[in-house]
Amino acid sequence: MTTLSVPDMSCNHCKATVEAALGAVPEAGAVTVDLTNRKVEVAGPAPAAALIQALDKAGYPATLA
Question: Could you give the angle at the alpha carbon of 54 between the alpha carbons of 53 and 60, nearest 5°?
Answer without folding.
Answer: 90
